Known about the structure:
Blueprint: H1 7-17, E1 20-25, H2 26-34, E2 43-44, E3 47-50, E4 56-61, H3 65-72, E5 78-87, E6 96-109, H4 111-122, E7 137-151, E8 154-158, H5 160-165, H6 175-185, H7 187-193, E9 205-212, E10 215-221, E11 226-232, H8 240-251, H9 254-261
Antiparallel strand pairs: 1-2, 1-5, 3-4, 4-7, 5-6, 6-7, 7-8, 9-10, 10-11
Amino acid sequence: MISLPDPAERARTIAARSPEAVLVPCAHAAHAETDPSRSAVRIATHLHHVHADATMTVLLPEAHPLVAAVWQSPRGAVTVMAELTDPAPVRLREPVRGLLWITGMLTALEGEQGRERALLVAEEVADPRLLDVGHGMSVLRVDPASLVLADADGTSSLQPLEFHEAVPDPFHDYETEWLRHLEVSHRDVVGQLARHVPAELRGGQVRPLGLDRFGLRLRVEAADADHDIRLPFSRSVSTPEELAVELRKLVGCPFLAQATST
C-alpha cells in the first residue's frame, strides 16, 4: 500500500510552495567542489517560478553580473543550478524540510519574449514583482536537464518529464497556515497526536512538520537528536472534508467513533 507521495509529486509540491530560490553558476559550483576555500556563488533571485514543464522563470536586476555573463556567452546561455528550499511551517531547530535542485541552461529573454514569459507566470501567480519587468529587472529562463530532490523520505534524481507528469499535493496551498494554527492554537490536538509517537521518543517536544494527502508528519525534538514520524491516513484524501475525517481518526475523536459504529 502506498503511504507517501512519490518523488515527482514531492518535487512538484516543493516547487509550488517554495518561497525562496538561489542560483549557483555551475562553474562556481565546480570550483567549490575541488577547492573548499572557494565557496560557490549563491545568487538570490528577485522572483522565481517553476512551471509544470520544469522550466523556471527568474527575475534578476538588469545590471547583475550573471545577466551580463549570459549575454556575453558565445552560446547565449550559461549552466546553472537552481536550489529551492522547502522550509518547515513552524520554528524548528532544523528548519529545512527538503531541497530541490534544478540544473539546466540559463538564457535571457529580450523585449516581447520577456513580457510574454512574465504574463505566463502571472496566469498562475499574481505577484506584484512582475511589474518590475522592463523597469530594472530582466527575465531569464532555466531549461532543465535534470532535477534532484532531497528530503526526509530520501534522495531521488528526476527527469523533467517525470516532474511534468506529476501534480502538487492537493493541500500545498494551505498546509503552512493550517500547521501553524495547529501549533499555536491547538496544542491539545498535538498532544493527542503524540500518542502515536514511539514510546522511546515521547520525552521530546512534538511539533507539526508536514501534511500531504497520505498523512501527517511530526517532528520530535529530543535531547539527542531530531526524529521525524509519519502518521499515515487510512486512505489517500483530496478534499478538506476527507482530510477532516482522517485527522479525527488520528486524534481519536469519540464523535467520529460513534458515527462510524452506527
